[in-house]
Amino acid sequence: GSTTRFGLADVVVVAGAPLRLVPGPSRGRLEILHANQWGAVCASGFGDAEARAACRQLGFAGGHAAQCNGSAAECGTAGPIWLGGVRCLGLEDTLSECRHNPWSSSSCSRSTVVVLTC
Question: SS3 for the chain, per residue?
Answer without folding.
Answer: CEEEEECCEEEEECCCCCEEEEECCCEEEEEEEECCEEEEEECCCCCHHHHHHHHHHCCCCCCEEEECCCCHHHHCCCCCEEECCCECCCCCCCHHHCECCCCCCCCCCHHHEEEEEC
